[in-house]
Structure to design on (61 residues):
């Protein structure tokens, strides 16, 4: 598998957590449909999984 840099991993993790948190906050104040809330949560989970699968945070000796 192709490995990505540590900086890109951290950006993906931050964007994933933001997408999940934003969908929760917006659904609290604004009535969102289940489709929109599911898309935002799914996108966030997808970004987090992408960072975990393609990322290599261990230092190689």
């Amino acid at each position: 598998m192709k490995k990505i840099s540590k900086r890109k991993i951290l950006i993906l993790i931050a964007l994933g957590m933001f997408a999940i948190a934003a969908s929760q906050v917006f659904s609290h104040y604004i009535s969102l449909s289940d489709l929109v809330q599911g898309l935002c949560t799914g996108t966030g989970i997808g970004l987090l999984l992408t960072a975990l699968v393609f990322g290599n945070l261990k230092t190689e000796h």
About this structure: The chain has a mean pLDDT of 87.
